[in-house]
Amino acid sequence: MSTRRGGRRPGKPDTREAILTAARTTFAERGFDAASIRAIATAAGVDPALVHHYFGTKEELFRATVAIPIDPAELLPGVLAGGPDEVGARLVRTFLTVWDSPVGTAAVALLRSAVNNEWTARLLREFLVTQVLRRVLDRLDLDPAETPLRGALVGAQMAGLAMMRYVIRLEPIASAAPETLVAAIGPTVQRYVTGPLDAA
Amino acid sequence: MSTRRGGRRPGKPDTREAILTAARTTFAERGFDAASIRAIATAAGVDPALVHHYFGTKEELFRATVAIPIDPAELLPGVLAGGPDEVGARLVRTFLTVWDSPVGTAAVALLRSAVNNEWTARLLREFLVTQVLRRVLDRLDLDPAETPLRGALVGAQMAGLAMMRYVIRLEPIASAAPETLVAAIGPTVQRYVTGPLDAA
After folding, report:
1. B200 contacts in A (CB within 8 Å)?
2. Under CATH, to which class is A72-194 assigned?
3. pLDDT at B188
4. pLDDT band at A89 (very low <50, low <70, confident <90, very high)
5. Which B positions 72-91 lie with beta carbon below 8 A of chain A?
6. Which of A156, B2, B17, B114 is deepest in the core (most CB within 10 A)?
7. Is B106 an interface residue toward A (CB < 8 Å)?
8. Which CATH class is domain B2-65?
């Protein structure tokens, strides 16, 4: 796991922490795209090479700031593998596989924190848009004018599923078999990604 | 507003508070259906008549415990008015009208609190199921075996919409015109209420 880089090459804990704090602030203030490693290094008072040394790429540093131990880039090829017509069901299935696993505990913690902290909310929003939604939608040859709304709709459906299954624990969603939810929610996500966005 | 009953007939503030505290505990522990006014009165150390005097019906007392100033029972006839085929769009439209209004601030506060507090989560779950979802679904002549899942799916979609529009503020959902969201999300809610729940 790339967030363990610091574990393999310990360095000074204060330097790591200073970089993480600077990264959190910079990503939240400027957004993922506009935040540069150079700006983060300057804010932390270290050389940019040290940021790469501890945290790897900007994506990896970003995941470390939001404490997300999985790399969406590794999961997305599987989601996209079946082509555009399969993407709804595969997205819901992959989402449940991750959140039902021990990693899901970190995801639930992030969701709780985002609800109560404006900065975490900004980081989560950036993470969703740049690391997950844009990556899926950019590969599907859709009308670029529509992709932001499509992405946000998928995000809303998935956030609501996470809320009900893991936080509010509303039955029968809380203990439903994953495939029950894939069958029920997959077509929704499919329509949000490739279907018409006005009334059918 | 029925939560103002105490305002019209002040009484002792401690008595009101004692009843509210007992109600919150009893509703969270037993659920709305099993919690009786008698049990709440006993827990508060007062006469049941006093509970009715301060808070009116069990529904009104329940709304006071979750600090929700609107009565879903007043809104639902409008949602159901166009018959089952209109229910998806009308539900989303009514939801946005309430949450976009000043009352929405209380709803967002409740959502935030439910995410971080197990008891508030239980109360919110009870509120959703007994005061909103069941009331809509019971009037639509559906297979009773399916209604709990249908209700939970509607709840998940609406909770996700609320998260993205009011809490995480993900664009373009955060500032979209209500009718854009009604057109995009209405068909989803419609399918969750009346459509097939397995893959189309």
Report:
1. 187
2. mainly alpha
3. 97
4. very high
5. 89
6. A156
7. no
8. mainly alpha
